[in-house]
Design goal:
alpha/beta, elongated, 43% helix, 432 residues, four-stranded antiparallel beta sheet, Rossmann fold, 3 domains
Length: 432
């Protein structure tokens, strides 16, 4: 890639960074609406995506490096200068791009614009950054995690585990697939890794639709941790199951594959449309309802209800590094209140003797066991039904002392980690 060829990709990365940091847009949203990004060639689009994800993962240490060499603050009206510096520093610190390529292209981004007066500053700061010794990985990870978030993990999991979680977030995650059947055969077919919990892991894939088996619905994309909650429903075959907050449908597909009679509910028509598309590819047809779980009143109670509740998604930071910049403690508290309302609504849909699975892709205790504990205190007809290691292929490190499922991004280091997920299985007392 020539320096000239790399300019459009770098410009798109700068604009995407502005979307996340200045406009507080989720990166996925910015990627969808960015004309500059979507007009790139496939290779430049991949490079821009690598730049923005790497920058967001390492933003704390990148900003620290920039501040070391700024003699005076950058004017607020010139925020794009800081973004250009950030993308340039990302190349030097994270991607190990040659100094001349990272510095020269950053300078050229500013030339010919209202930022041309800052080219000298950009050049000087980036050249000094290129001479910096790297921070130790653990130290760098701490800089890249907001204080309130790291402190919450330290309090809940201990300092070493919190540090390991932060380090895990610095690595681009692999692509996990859930096989419709015969995961071992799929792993061999794709020359992939079969994980202990039967997910199939590919190191990477730039084009998911090009992977063998996509068109015939032999698998779907689903992180190994996200594939576990649906497995906690005992003997789902033939049972009536309500999947609440179901889109985009990975857990629904698991339940259908296991023989369950599934009804899926989600309040977002847009997300349900994606789910319809996904299920059609998989050859699955089920009953879908676009409605609010809090007000939905089906005619019959379910044998089992799976509630994958909206949450802060802090368990997915390695896939979505913008979460650390967009979420706050206030969001966690707001969502915990909603989750309590949702688990109570979901419980009303469970028949006597049936099960409720409460799941969130969060690392925050306020959204996990505390929601469940609060529910159980006021709903005496429900009790925890502890998960056993045998139910998830003997992976005992995923089971808490209370019998809940808890995965951390720092688990499975040998296989490259997995998302953070929590799930509790709750059983309603049968009729006397």
């Amino acid at each position: 890639m020539s320096n000239q060829a790399g300019i459009p990709a770098r410009l798109a990365a700068v604009e995407l960074l502005s979307g996340v940091l200045d406009n507080k847009e989720a990166l996925e949203t910015s990627l969808q609406v960015s004309k500059n990004f979507n007009s790139l060639t496939d290779s430049d689009r991949a490079f821009a995506h690598l730049l923005i994800k790497s920058c967001l993962r390492h933003l704390g240490e990148i900003d620290r490096a920039i501040e070391l060499f700024l003699k005076k603050p950058i004017p607020a009206k010139a925020s794009m200068v800081r973004h250009i510096l950030r993308i340039g520093a990302t190349q030097l610190i994270v991607l190990k791009t040659a100094q001349h390529a990272a510095v020269d292209t950053s300078v050229r981004l500013a030339k010919g614009t209202r930022l041309a007066g800052f080219t000298g500053l950009i050049n000087a700061v980036l050249r000094r950054i290129s001479e910096l010794d790297n921070l130790k990985k653990a130290e760098a990870a701490r800089y890249n995690t907001p204080g309130w978030l790291f402190e919450s993990w330290e309090k809940e999991y201990g300092f070493e585990s919190a540090k390991d979680i932060a380090v895990a977030h610095l690595t681009e995650p692999a692509l996990d697939l859930t096989a419709r059947k015969a995961p071992n055969d799929l792993a061999k077919k794709l020359n992939a890794t079969l994980l202990p919990t039967q997910s199939v892991r590919l190191d990477s894939a730039s084009n998911v639709t090009a992977i063998d088996g996509f068109r015939d619905g032999g698998w779907w994309v689903q992180d190994a941790a996200a594939a576990l909650p649906a497995r906690l429903l005992p003997t789902p075959s033939g049972k009536r199951v309500y999947d609440l907050c179901a889109a985009p449908g990975g857990k629904t597909a698991q339940l259908v594959s296991a023989g369950a009679k599934v009804t899926a509910v989600d309040r977002s028509d847009k997300r349900l449309e994606i789910m319809r598309h996904n299920l059609t590819r998989l050859g699955m047809t089920i009953e879908l309802h676009c409605t609010d779980v809090l007000s939905w009143q089906p005619k019959k109670l379910a044998d089992a209800v799976l509630l994958d509740a909206p949450c802060s998604a802090t368990g997915t930071i390695r896939r979505h590094p913008d979460i650390t910049l967009l979420k706050s403690l206030a969001d966690v508290r707001r969502l915990a209140k909603l989750q309590s309302e949702l688990i109570n609504a979901a419980a009303n849909l469970v028949r006597p003797g049936g099960h409720l699975i409460y799941a969130v892709c969060s690392l925050q205790p306020e959204e996990c066991q505390r929601v469940v504990n609060k529910f159980l205190l006021t709903n005496k007809q429900f009790k925890r039904d502890p998960v056993t290691p045998q139910e998830i292929d003997a992976v005992s490190e995923f089971i808490t002392p209370a019998g809940d499922l808890r995965t951390l991004p720092s688990h499975w280091k040998a296989w490259g980690g997995l998302d953070g997920f929590f799930a509790a299985r709750i059983k309603r007392s049968p009729l006397p």
